[in-house]
């Protein structure tokens, strides 16, 4: 299975990948540092699941999400954000995200996400 | 005195921890005000206090409500919260406040809730706890900011700057976390421990 991790923070990406690899050691993982890069990777590498941050420079997650789904409607997008306001959660679900989860994602939280998917 | 610096990885890590802490704190305040806030990417730098004061002098708006709150522990320092007069007036309208005392009280409560949830979460992410002194508030013309006791205590500070923005209500505020050398060293050590655990 192919995964895409989109976050401008290296710490956030490394931490999420570590949690993911604990449960899926054969995961093929791509990384993007903003929404624009993420859209390109969705087009070229065709990941199955994307973990998407919202607050990023160049292109934020709100803008990237519909563009990523336009490239691949079957892509499952998990929004991983520090913004836990109800309005933010509703907005990303309406834009097509499967889930909105609060940062950071530890090993236990990752297991819950993978079970839901 | 030489200014301590954060490496790019340390800065990235602190920015991410701050992002998580700020998201948490904003959600609490948004619920309190029944409004939706936009999150911004925190800016982080270590600078001399004189540089920070110069930065304040360059602002377009001249009068601010300024509140500060000290925090103590392994990670210690002070949070500084600025809200310009126009935003304070909009906050007053949004909360349907009747007089200036009520506005002072509302800003103090906002400072208390925002900065304590922010600092508690940030400290927690770094594996420690902090305690707080009660916040204080002043209405401050910018030319008097150099006289504020808050800034006199610091020679160089780590400035974690972020914006609290309620677009619909036209309320903007800024938050600074100020710490001294000892806490900056501690912070660097903790950030490196977090980073090493991921490598």
Kindly identify the CATH topology of chain A.
Rossmann fold
| Count of discrete alpha- or pi-helical segments spanning 4 or more residues of chain A | 5
In percent, how helical is the residue content of chain A? Answer: 40-55%
Number of strands of chain A: 5
The CATH level-2 architecture of chain B is identified as: 3-Layer(aba) Sandwich
Structural class of chain A: alpha/beta
The profile of the biggest β sheet of chain B is: 7 strands, antiparallel
Radius of gyration of chain A: 13 Å
Shape verdict of chain A? globular
- The number of helical elements of chain B comes to 6
- Tell me the distance between the termini of chain A: 12 Å
The CATH class name of chain B reads Alpha Beta
Structural class of chain B: alpha+beta
Poorly predicted parts of chain B = none
Spatial order of strands in the largest sheet of chain A:
2-1-3-4-5
Order of helices and strands of chain A: EHEHEHEHEH
What does this structure look like?
The complex is a heterodimer of chains A (117) and B (199). By secondary structure, chain A is of the alpha/beta class. Chain A has a single domain (2-116), classed as Response regulator (Rossmann fold, 3-Layer(aba) Sandwich), CATH 3.40.50.2300. Chain A has 5 helices and 5 strands, in the order E-H-E-H-E-H-E-H-E-H. Chain A has helices spanning 10-23, 35-45, 61-71, 86-94, 107-116, and strands at residues 2-6, 28-32, 49-52, 76-81, 99-102. Chain A has a 5-stranded parallel β-sheet with strand order 2-1-3-4-5, with helices on both faces. The longest helix of chain A is centred in the first third of the chain and has 14 residues, at 10-23. The radius of gyration of chain A is 13 Å and the shape is globular. Chain A starts with a strand and ends with a helix. Chain B is an alpha+beta fold. Chain B has a single domain (8-192), classed as Chemotaxis protein chec, CATH 3.40.1550. Chain B has helices at residues 8-33, 49-57, 85-94, 100-125, 149-152, 181-198; strands spanning 43-48, 63-73, 77-84, 130-132, 136-141, 156-166, 171-179. In chain B, strand 2 and strand 3 (77-84) form a beta hairpin. The longest helix of chain B has 26 residues, at 8-33. Chain B is globular, with a radius of gyration of 17 Å. The A-B interface holds A 8-12, 14-15, 18, 54-57, 81-85, 87-88, 102-104 and B 9, 12-13, 15-17, 19-24, 26-27, 30, 36-37, 39-41, 125, 194-195, 198-199.
